Amino acid sequence: MLQLSICLFHLNSRTKGQQPLVLDSRRLHIALIAPPFISVPPGEYGGTELFIAQLAEGLRKAGARVVVYANGESRVGAEVRWIYEHSQWPIKAQEQAWLKDLNHESWALRNAMEDADVIHFHTAQGLAFSRFAKQPAILTLHWPHDAKLSDFYSHFPDVHYVCISNSQCRQESMPRLRTIHHGIDLRQYRLVEHKQQYLSFIGRIAPIKGTHIAIEVARRTGIPLKIAGEVQPQYREYFEAKVKPQIDGKLVEYVGSANLELKNELLGNSMAMLFPIQWNEPFGLVMVEAMACGTPVLAMPGGSVPEVIQNGVSGKICRTVQQMVKEVGELHFDPNTVRKYVEESFSLDRMVRNYLSLYGHAMREAETRRIA
Q1: How confident is the model at residue 11 (pLDDT cuts 50, 70, 90)?
Q2: What is the Cα Rg of the chain in Å?
Q3: Backbone angle region of 280, left / alpha / beta, with phi > 0 → left and psi within -120 to 50 → alpha
Q4: Dihedral pair phi/psi, residue 55, rounded to 5°
Q5: Contact partners, residue 196, CB within 8 Å, separation at least 6
Q6: Which residues have C-beta within 8 Å of that of residue 324, sequence separation ≥ 6?
Q7: Which helix (H) or strand (E) holds 291?
Q8: Would you call the peptide bond into 90 cis, given omega within 30 degrees of 0 as the criterion?
Q9: Fold match flag (5-183+347-371 vs 189-345)
Q10: Exposed, middle or buried by CB within 10 Å (0-12, 13-18, 19+), for 242?
Q11: DSSP state of 199
Q12: CATH of the structural domain 5-183+347-371, one choice from 3.40.50.2000, 3.40.50.450, 3.40.50.300, 3.40.50.1100
């Protein structure tokens, strides 16, 4: 079991010219402020919400007190506080959603300020309210680089920013910036050693995710493809034009959105998961989920992919469709080796240790500023 002393040791270590920060014996209290639109953990779609749920439960296991600010449908293994009872996804009216999120973020911060030691945001909007809190603020960047957002971040130099890949970090310039890769609770993913003769694709049905490329690979190899993922309103036309006409229930099958049980079944039994992204993916948690089931990932090289896949060990990075077709025909991965790679590189314990270290560092900095 992780020990909270990992964090407290760093807090109490002396540095030149500084007195150690002495904490009382109460448990560290972390406020995790999630968006209010999807439950934590998500029933189906919601990579950010899955991350928040696993972080919350990992922090609790390590001895911290955790409060998750989400919506009332959340069933995470931690205390949940909410003002909006129900999920609202997909978002239909952006202006109304924006106001709802602002209300949720400001209320959550005001509530967390009463007793939290660290306030950890998961939307950029929350930063606008962090000026009013004495506690250190953390923001994990769950979205791709945007110049306007980066300009917004520049007004909050005391916030500690977490990139979810080095690729993402290289595009930012905030003074307090570090990378912490996502980790998953491996107990929730079943290793399947004997694979079935089909390929899998899980993700939003969108051009940047390359669903149409996965279908092309299936057609060129003759190996069936099972697709799971949400069709959001803005990509409905893409689905109708590029994906739906190819679905025949034999070579190409669409199974709808995937919850955790369906992910285990679909990913675990497939000979490989296709991840033919057409953009700079900030992380791509589903790659780790597939590998946790012992299933290799064949991916295009955008964004975080070279950090997540160990080429030739847990999957293959393919620069062209032709290469992906070739790799499908030459699959020779050992499911146990693929699973072991995830255990060593993307475990929940490792992620929690990294966040505890960050929380401790942020608390020390905040205390130093307070007494300066």
Answers
A1: very low
A2: 21
A3: beta
A4: -65, -45
A5: 269, 270, 271
A6: 213, 217, 274, 276, 298, 300, 316, 318
A7: helix 285-292
A8: yes
A9: yes
A10: middle
A11: E
A12: 3.40.50.2000
> What is the distance between the alpha carbons of residues 163 and 160, in angstroms, rounded to a whole number?
10
CA atoms within 13 Å, Cβ hemisphere of 282: 18
Beta-sheet pairing, 297-299 with 270-275: parallel
Q: What is the DSSP string of 88-119?
A: --S---HHHHHHHHHHHHHHHHHHHTTT-SEE
pLDDT of residue 18: 39
Kindly report, residue by residue over 137-160, the tens digit of the pLDDT: 999 999 999 999 999 999 999 999
- State the amino acid at position 160 in one-letter form: H
Residue 308 has pLDDT above 70, yes or no: yes
Which pLDDT tens digit goes with each residue over 152-189? 999 999 999 999 999 999 999 999 999 999 999 999 99
pLDDT confidence of 110, banded at 50, 70, 90?
A: very high
Q: How many helical (H) and strand (E) elements, i.e. helices and strands, does the chain have?
A: 14, 13
* Residue pair 139/127 in contact by the 8 Å Cβ criterion: yes
φ, ψ of residue 41 to 5 degrees: the values are: -75, 165
For the chain, give every domain's residue range.
5-183+347-371, 189-345
What are the tokens at 350?
């490792």
Rounded CA gap, 305 and 291, in Å? Answer: 13
Domain 189-345 has CATH 3.40.50.2000: yes
Q: Residue-wise over 92-130: b if at least 16 C-beta within 10 A, else e? A: eeeeebeebbeebbebbbebbeeebbbbbbbbbbbbebb
What is residue 93's predicted lDDT score, i.e. its pLDDT? 72
Given pLDDT bands bounded at 50, 70 and 90, which one contains residue 27? confident
What is the DSSP-derived secondary structure letter of residue 316?
A: E
Distance CA 299, CA 210 (A): 10
* Count of CB atoms situated within 10 Å of the CB of 356: 26
